[in-house]
Amino acid sequence: MSSDILELEVKLIERVLEKREEIISEAEKKAREIINEARERRMKTITEGREDQRRITGSDLKAIRDKILGEAEREGRRKIMEMRHGEISRVFSEVENRLRAIAEGKDKSVDYHEILLKLISEAASAVGEKELLIAVNKKDRRYLKDELGETERHICKALGYNIKLTIEDEPVDCLGGVILYDHSKRKIFYNTLEARLEKARIEMGAEVARVLGVI
Amino acid sequence: MEVKRYIEVSEKLTKLLEEAEKEAREIIAQAEERAEKMVAEALEEAKTMRLRAETGEVLGELEEEAQKAAEEEAKEIRREYDKRLSRLKEIPQERFQKATDLILRKVLLR
To answer: What pLDDT digit, counting tens, does each position of A7-27 carry?
Structure first.
């Protein structure tokens, strides 16, 4: 056998072995593709099944979700509301302390007697009678007893008509301000500092919250 | 003599290639069979899932799942509210003072 033929034979064998390798390798590649495609289809099918389950049971599941999320929302809103309420109360407590100091004459930046006159004028105007009974706390009672004439003159001037003030015998337990009655005590106007503070609490809650920035 | 030997080798190599092709077909057939089984099982599973949903059998399981997911969302909502709460709590003193003065003016007719 010549060496040429032998060489040709070796080359032929090599080529065939390569071809064999190629055929198997191609088949394995295709097999992997088939399996991968099947995996994707399986995943898609299961996902669709799961979605169908959710669709079928949708309203029940939505109710659960709404309940849990609604609860969290309510809880959050309640916390904010409580905080807002607490901060507003803190402001009103501070105002009450300052009112006490003002009424007791400890806060020199405010002339309490001037305030008292304004409160009496406002109450007198609201009651709209000429003979008026005035009830105040013990300290203001002492002051008004001494200054009754001057107070009457001031109120008359403010109202534009004459009035007669009589101080009630019993003092009122309040920070300051007045309670004014007509002679028969059928008409009454509470203009104590507490009453005005309470009114402000009712009317100004939202405004105070806005100023505090807790809305 | 040499020609005869060459023919013999050629025949063996041809057979080798035929066997390789047969093996390749088997590999693909096995893969197809496996794939078909996988898809069939998945279809069956999806069908069972739908059936369980329709009969209400799966409701508990899904409810539990929905509950878990919603609780996670709820945690996020609570976190957001807590953050907002912390922000709101930081009231500057001047705002507090301004609110106090506002009420005082109203109460004292100033």
So the answer is: 878 888 888 899 999 999 999
> Span A75-94, mean pLDDT?
95
The CA distance from A22 to B30, in Å, is 19
A69 burial via Cβ count (<10 Å: 0-12, 13-18, 19+): middle
The ipTM of this complex is 0.71
Cα atoms in the Cβ-side hemisphere of radius 13 Å centred on B89 = 11
Count how many domains chain B has.
1
Say if A49 is an interface residue toward chain B (CB within 8 Å). Answer: yes
| Pair of tokens at residue B67 | 């509950």
Domain limits for position B58: 2-107
Q: Do A52 and B50 touch (CB under 8 A)?
A: yes
**How much is the pTM?**
0.66
Q: Which residues, numbered 6 to 25 in chain A, qualify as contacts with chain B under a Cβ-Cβ cut-off of 8 Å? A: 9, 12-13, 16-17, 19-20, 23-24
Q: Return residues 69-98 of B near A (CB < 8 Å).
A: 69-71, 73-75, 77-78, 80-82, 84-85, 88-89, 91, 95-96, 98
